[in-house]
Write a structure and sequence with these properties.
CATH topology of the largest domain: Four Helix Bundle (Hemerythrin (Met), subunit A)
Largest sheet: 2 strands, antiparallel
Strand content: under 5%
CATH class of the largest domain: Mainly Alpha
Order of helices and strands: HHHEEHHHHHH
CATH superfamily of the largest domain: GntR ligand-binding domain-like
Structural class: mainly alpha
CATH architecture of the largest domain: Up-down Bundle
Shape: globular
Radius of gyration: 18 Å
Strand order of the largest sheet: 1-2
Mean pLDDT: 91
Number of strands: 2
Helix content: over 70%
Low-confidence stretches: 6-11
Length: about 220
């Protein structure tokens, strides 16, 4: 874990940085499902006092990423039924984001989506890089939707996604399929076709779910 004290000295800022760092460690697998999370160890590793760590852990617990057990706080585990529920909601929300983006995206935002889609296509062979570009692509769609309430809902959903182990881009076939799926979403948004954008985004999430379930079988 990197030092979380840089960039500001107020407790709230430190708590936010600890929160983001722990969330990223969960997403990256540095903190594994079921692993004990000790307040004092986190504080020592990040070079902060226990107060911002306590605040961050409370927030992570409220968001379902950390859970209390008789043995203490541990990284939460997401079940197969929960995974299906998560992707069902993701399909609805990501589809809506693409629909709104087709209606409201600025030309510069569409250009950003096109650049991210192209960058994704050149990152084959690096599952971590593909996952990061994919997250940025989806985040750019949400930004282009210009709906603050959708942003809030997808932010919480993104937290839950951090509990899923690994990335679907570990599967060799997932990257090439995602390239065509991203291209279809961008084309529909650029054409200002909300129906096509929503269909393309929903299909993208459906196929991501299929890949996720395949990955879970290998876990």
């Amino acid at each position: 874990m990197a030092d979380a004290t840089a960039g500001g000295d107020d407790g709230l800022s430190r708590a936010q940085r600890v929160y983001e760092r722990l969330k990223e460690d969960i997403r990256a697998g540095a903190l594994r499902r079921g692993e004990r999370v000790r307040e004092e160890q986190v504080a020592r590793a990040l070079g902060v006092s226990r107060t911002p760590v306590r605040e961050a852990l409370a927030r992570l617990t409220a968001r379902g990423l950390i859970e209390a057990t008789p043995a203490g706080l541990v990284v939460a585990t997401i079940s197969r039924p929960q995974t299906l529920e998560l992707y069902a909601m993701r399909e609805v929300l990501e589809g809506s984001a693409a629909r709104f983006a087709a209606q409201h995206a600025a030309p510069s935002e569409i250009a950003m989506l096109d650049r991210l889609s192209s960058a994704f296509e050149t990152a084959f062979g690096d599952a971590g890089r593909l996952a990061e570009l994919n997250r940025r692509f989806h985040s750019a769609i949400v930004d282009a939707a210009h709906n603050r309430y959708l942003v809030r809902m997808l932010d919480e959903l993104s937290d839950a996604l951090a509990l899923l182990p690994g990335t679907t881009f570990q599967l060799a076939e997932r990257g090439p399929l995602a390239v065509s799926e991203h291209a279809a979403i961008v084309a529909a948004i650029a054409a200002r076709d909300p129906d096509a954008a929503e269909r393309a985004a929903r299909l993208h999430i459906q196929r991501a779910q299929e890949a996720r379930l395949s990955l879970l079988q290998l876990d």
